[in-house]
Structures are given as C-alpha cells and as structure tokens.
Amino acid sequence: MQSKLFTVLAISATLHLTAAADSKAGWTGQLSSLDGGLGGIVTVVDNTTLMVNKYTLEDASAPALYWWGSASANLKGGFRISNKHVTEAATSDTLTIALDAGKTVADFATVGLWCEKFSANFGQATLAAPVPGQTGGGSTQPAKQNAGAANVVG
C-alpha cells in the first residue's frame, strides 16, 4: 500500500512540475523598436521555444546580436537565451527562437534583442499572461540602456 501511495505521489509531483514549467505558454509581449527596425509580438510556445509574429528587422549589421532575457525590465542585467547569432534582416514575418543557452521561460519575464559587443538594446518585450478577449498581451518596456550607435542584426 505504501509503495502505491508513493508512486501516485511521485506521478502527481512530476505532472505538477511539468505544468509549472509550461505555465507561461501563451504569454505574449509587444517588442519595442529601439534600433534596426525591430518589431513583432513575442509569444511563449513552450518552456524552450518563443515565436515572434509580425516580425520585422530591417538592419542586421551589428556584430554580436543575440536574443536575451531578464527577470526584470532591465535587459542589460540579463543573459543570453539563444545561442543563434542574429546575422540577417527579417526574411519572414515569423521567427522561432529556440532557448538553447541553458535558460527556460521560467528564468525571465523580459525578452529582447541585445548587441553583446556594444551593450545595445534593439528592442524588448515584457511577457504577460493573456487577457481573455484581448489579443497580443504583454507590454513594451522602453529601454534606456541603448548605449552607442549600433545597427540591428536579424
């Protein structure tokens, strides 16, 4: 009897942890456009994937552009969430971002495109839970850390 109870508790805990990890699925945020013509709506697909719809990036010439996340609205104090170097302008209005840098959506509330060489913020979005009856939730966070001139990498 004790063994069965333990098994039930273990399965319940596993399901709870899985649900908690994906609890941000559907959260969205509108990217601010601070440089390079960046724009779009970021949506959490699952624990390790983001999707940007209405994606725009006109200039991708900055030397070290990567998608970053931050637990606060300060992207400069954040961390890389994707190891894919952004090197070209948008060629489609949809972009999938794989979170392959050891972070998951549970680690951040703000996502943005960051130039690591110039410490420049090209735009960011604060992710928020969807509001019933409303599309494109989330908010933009005007960033003050766009230091120096740099072009966007896309």
Automatic annotation (TrEMBL):
KW Signal (keyword) present: yes
Keywords: Signal
Domain DM13: 25-128
InterPro entries the UniProt entry points to: B561A, DM13_domain
Keyword field contains Phosphoprotein: no
SMART domains: DM13
Residue span of region Disordered: 133-154
Leader sequence segment: 1-20
TM region(s), chain numbering: none
Protein's UniProt name: DM13 domain-containing protein
